[in-house]
Hints:
alpha/beta; 11 helices; 8 strands
Amino acid sequence: MSAPSSEFVEADGLRWYVEKLGAGSTVLLVHGTAASTHSWRDVMPLLTDKFQVVALDLPGHGKTVASTSSHFSLDGIARGVSAVMRALGLSPEIVVGHSAGAAILAVACSRKLMQPQKFVSFNGAFYPFTGMAGNLFSPVAKLLAFNSFVPHIFSGLASRATVEKLLRETGSAMSSEGVDHYFNLLKQPDHVGAALKMMASWDLRGMDDELSHLTQTSIFVAGDRDKSVPPDTADRAAACCRNAKTIHIAGLGHLLHEEDPALAAAIIRGNDP
């Protein structure tokens, strides 16, 4: 099985890391907070008989470097991802986002920065925490994100066993290879800092309105074991859209596309489980 080609693309003031595989109509894959292109490693090859598949590292994540706080806002990342596609000369037919990646693509589609035919969300993180968690999370995230010592401390303390436990708490059963990928990422202070800055910089209060402007076919997939994003988030998001449906998957958690890449690829193609 061939490996993706990789390149760096200059767009929106950043040098983005991009992977491409296959030929045909374009499918764009966008990962979630604290992940990278590695999260699509087993999905990409399953689409290449029909599509050119493109995945990228978000600002500060993996091999894409970010230097200013504006690179981490939801609006800023949506514009940046759209700029990458323009720089590549590509117009995606299908866009697919996991967790925070789904929110990024929803904003890009809502504001017509990209106009694909289909939008697919895997456990999309569209809404802020509620109650006490909501009151505490943003201030704490900001405090941690903009303290330059915190990412170094976190990365220095990270062990493979700790990462394995964190992943298990998402509700997903990860392969040893998957754990290794996340462990290697979380040993990088810049990657950890970028994840914290993303969480601190986002304002999700207007997502219902953003979703209401989606005109493409929209599919909201939820793993019923997801412990990071409530599975009923998919139903709320779909109810905002004009042409949407939800798919609930039993037995899979937040990282369902990594747990069952064949299922994820089938949904992207339009084959319901």
